[in-house]
Amino acid sequence: MNEIKCNADTGNSVIYTGEKISSFEKYLKGRKTVVITDKNINRLYGNHFSNYPSVVIGTGEEIKSLATVEYIISELIKNGCDRKTFILGIGGGIVTDITGFASSVFMRGVDFGFVSSTLLSQVDASVGGKNGVNAGTLKNMIGVFRQPEFVICDPEMITTLSDSEYLSGLAEVIKHGFIRNSSLLSFISDNRNLILDKDTAVIEKMVFESVKIKTDVVTEDPKESGLRKILNFGHTFGHAVELINGIPHGHAVAFGMICALKLSHSLNYITEADKNYGINLLKNFGYKEDFNIEESDLFDCLSHDKKKSDDKIDFVLLNKIGNAFIEKIEIKELRRWYNDMCSGS
Ligand code: GLY
Predict the structure, then answer these.
(1) Considering the domain 163-343 in this protein, what is its CATH number?
(2) Distance 223 CA to ligand 1 centre (A)
(3) Mutate to test the pocket of ligand 1, among 6, 13, 124 (most ligand atoms within 8 A of CB)
């Protein structure tokens, strides 16, 4: 087991990688605790927290709404919770995002922590203090920055994920390699088969390396005023494709990273060999390079991107494998580049 600290003005958090769900009680330090989870986790792991009152929510992106927050809060009130109550979210990114948000607004803020059950939430969603819900179809439009007191990352829980869900999280691990650590990418290439077999030792190592990268970035820029934007590598085109095609987040981000590698090369920031290395690495894990999307739909989505201002978008590019930077790019320039790329010129 390893501990990684993430201390920032949004709170102090400790992430325990290689820890077990069965050990969560010791982190509660005897406090009155209510669990928030979803019906799948409750079915699979409910025996671990049957001694605690729980609020069980549904699954899927539609559940990440203010209506669910209101439901959770009414259940906390029914359970006699007060400012000293601790809230433990057990689940993937939807549960942890909504738990963090509900805990931050209930009685103007109570302490909370997570047992993170998916690879995507262990390496990204549950780390760094972004909590929130959607406004209709617009993702994470309502939220706060506030860090969980602790995050437990149990590698065994990852082995029960579907392949698609697992690969969705793996894309975020690969993202961390692209933006900050090329040796993580070498590790991923060298261990392809063990990774695809969901080997727990390899999962533990990937989660540890990813969390280290993410906490380093978040500690330096907790509220995304600059550096933290590099965590959005692959997310500009990725979010748009996710919204249009309804594909899982990481698969869309993998497509977005392929676009970003191509753009980094077109703008002469990385060599053709580096571009091909990155694209082949992603394709070797089965991520797709093309989703047959209408260009007009894609750019319609991009023009509503949260990272946009004055028709320019903060685009995350690479100047080498393992180093990302931000460049403001006009959406019309991006459109021209995309059309040239699709027509093969
Ligand atoms: N998922 C990107 C971030 O936490 O900033």
Answers:
(1) 1.20.1090.10
(2) 10
(3) 124
